[in-house]
Write a structure and sequence with these properties.
Oligomer: single chain
Radius of gyration: 20 Å
Mean pLDDT: 94
Low-confidence stretches: none
Order of helices and strands: HHHHHHH
Number of helices: 7
Shape: elongated
Strand content: under 5%
């Protein structure tokens, strides 16, 4: 049992670290957009790449930070009712509804991998004037979904342990 709890802790720690690192990409997006504004309005020389690069970075940010949000219990929830329930009842609800989560994540991994592998094999480009390779962002879809799956399994195990044990600290 200790091994299982430790593994859940490692998964959560990993996702928290990935989320913190990926979170810094928001600063990159901010710098890109500020640079675009300066180039466009002060030098009358708009760039062809900053808007698109900020969109690509944001796409990867969204996909790779989902597990961080799940680890912090930050996804949408009807807290007005949920918070009034006991921890065991909350865990039971989490376990029942987690099957919808797992079904969605498995589809996201499968379809995301198909999308990413096709993009990688063709070395897909955006088709814009700047025309960057976009396979890294498409690869972020199945990678982010796998991180979500791991965190979902960790949360599932933790909720299950809360249901079966009398006093547990997770």
């Amino acid at each position: 049992m200790h091994y299982v709890k430790s593994l859940c802790g490692y998964i959560t720690t990993m996702n928290l670290m990935v989320g913190r690192v990926v979170g810094y990409s928001i600063y990159l997006i901010f710098i890109l957009l500020i640079a675009e504004v300066i180039m466009r309005y002060f030098f009358r020389q708009p760039t062809t790449w900053t808007g698109e690069l900020s969109q690509l970075v944001f796409g990867a940010y969204v996909m790779l930070s989902g597990a961080y949000l799940l680890a912090n219990k930050g996804h949408v929830n009807v807290d007005i009712f949920y918070q009034k329930l006991s921890s065991k009842t909350q865990s039971f609800i989490n376990l029942v509804t987690s099957f919808l989560f797992f079904a969605f994540i498995l589809v996201l991994i499968t379809e995301g991998w198909e999308l990413a592998s096709d993009s990688i094999s063709r070395i897909e480009r955006s088709g814009s004037a700047w025309n960057p390779q976009i396979w890294p962002v498409k690869l972020a879809v199945p990678v982010g979904a796998c991180l979500l799956l791991l965190q979902g399994i960790s949360n599932f195990v933790e909720d299950f342990l809360i249901l079966i044990e009398k006093n547990i600290e997770i």
